[in-house]
Amino acid sequence: MIYKLKMGSDTICYIKSDLKNKFSYFKFEKDTVFQRNKADKNNNLVFILHGEMEVIYGDLYPRLISGGNMILLTPLSRCVCKAVSTVELIILGFGTLNHSCDKYIFQNLTPFFSLIKYEFRELEIRESLDRFLQLMQNYEQNQVPMADLASRKIQELFIILHAYYTSDELAMLFYPLLGKNMEFKKLVVDYYLHVKSAGEFAELCGYSQGVFQKKFKDVFGETVYQWMQRQKAEYIKHRLMTSEVNLKELADELNFASSVHLNKFCKIWFGMTPSEVRQTFILKKNLR
Hints:
288 residues; alpha+beta; Jelly Rolls; Arc Repressor Mutant, subunit A; 2 domains; six-stranded mixed β-sheet; five-stranded antiparallel β-sheet; 11 strands; 45% helix; disordered N terminus
């Protein structure tokens, strides 16, 4: 599903996975700006079939990704894309993978979690996977009913990935989904946008505050408060880099008492004011 929102001079298309474990086909014309809906709790495996798009992921500077590549976006991913030419995508929206084959592949990748340093990057679509995606595109464009077929095609996809890609390649692609206590991680990701405090977070996730704090520190390596503040900082920086939102609106959106408090927060996290963060990004982008 796609819905549009006017942001300054740009119209941004928000992509939302209506159903978990479903393939969807999208086509965006040149200069279209598009991104995930931040309320979407699905993971998205994005296959760029044709065209070229500029991607800003987190606080990374724009990079061009061409057709014939794939990327993974999770509910924690902050990513804005702009079609440099007409872009065609197949997106698999998935939550918890239930089939034993899919789980087996992820279990095999888990040991790599502590061995590699994650770097957001695209992975090429190889010939066998390309043939599979062409078939999925054909199904989508011809509105072939997929309700009973989708789960089997997802199993087939993961078999192809396991057969034609190395464990190192898959571990880097799926790194955000690896590690221990994935069910707890998913719970945190599902609810973090709806809470304002660690106590509220614990209650919503069904834990006492003490147990939640301990489990959270074990899984994420930092306190709930530190993690929530870091998520807020990353969101602010991404918004400043990818939109023309004014500072009062941004302060209101994130429940700061005023833009002065937003200013202080940015000075603590980035060593500069919000305006300086935005200007630094613009200058560095123009130099690339």
